[in-house]
Each structure stands twice: as structure tokens, then as C-alpha cells.
Specification:
This protein has six helices and three strands. It has 122 residues and is mainly α. The two termini are 22 Å apart. 15% of the residues are buried.
């Protein structure tokens, strides 16, 4: 490897390449990309984090937590809902949002732990 992280000669392991390319055919990478893209927005990341910290929150709670308008919070929540990150339940005129399943909480927890490790090793 050169200093810039690139190989100095071009060669590849054909068996590994073929195996992983085959695996890619069986996984919906596009959906995974969209999931991470949805959480990649800072406001949506804050909303996801907030919902990991509390079982459920209404839009007004979320708007106040992230410091934005209810309309803006609703926009971000819709995106998270479309990607299966959050779910909601209605109670009268109120809508309460929560994390769709434990996997999302695990992703957030792992990301936070990773970032702490990177900071500690710098």
C-alpha cells in the first residue's frame, strides 16, 4: 500500500470478489443505503436518538427537543416513517411516535459507541 492508501500494483482475489458479488445479489443494498441516508440528516438523527431515549414522543415534544417548528419536525418524521425507522399510534387527535424496532436502537447505540472509540483513539 502506498501512503495514500492505494495499492501500488493492481491485483485482486477473484474468489473473494466473485463470492461477495454473489452475496450482493441476495441483499437489498439499496434499501440499506436509504435507511442510513434517512438517519444521516442531523435533525433526523436527533429525532431517532430522542426516540431511542424515550419510549414514545409526540411531534410537539420532538420539535422542542430538536429546536425546530412542528411542521419541520413532521417533515423529518415522515421521512423516518417511510424508511421504517419510526412508527406511530393515534390517541384521539394526538400522534405518538416510537422507534419501529430494536434493530434501529442497536444501530444508534453502535454508532455512538463507535464514535466514542474513534475520539478516544485520536
Amino acid at each position: 500500500m502506498s501512503e495514500k492508501g492505494a495499492c501500488e500494483i493492481y491485483c485482486y482475489d477473484e474468489e473473494k470478489v466473485n463470492r461477495i458479488q454473489g452475496d450482493l445479489q441476495t441483499v437489498d443494498i439499496s434499501s440499506i443505503s436509504l435507511l442510513f441516508k434517512a438517519i444521516a440528516d442531523e435533525n433526523r438523527a436527533k429525532i431517532t436518538y430522542a426516540l431511542c431515549k424515550d419510549e414514545e414522543l409526540c411531534v410537539c415534544d420532538i420539535a422542542n427537543i430538536i429546536g425546530t417548528t412542528v411542521a419541520n419536525a413532521s417533515f423529518h418524521i415522515r421521512t423516518l416513517h417511510k424508511q421504517g425507522i419510526v412508527k406511530y399510534r393515534k390517541e384521539g387527535k394526538m400522534a405518538f411516535y416510537s422507534i419501529d424496532d430494536e434493530h434501529i436502537k442497536q444501530l444508534v447505540t453502535i454508532a455512538i459507541a463507535h464514535k466514542k472509540e474513534v475520539k478516544a483513539n485520536v
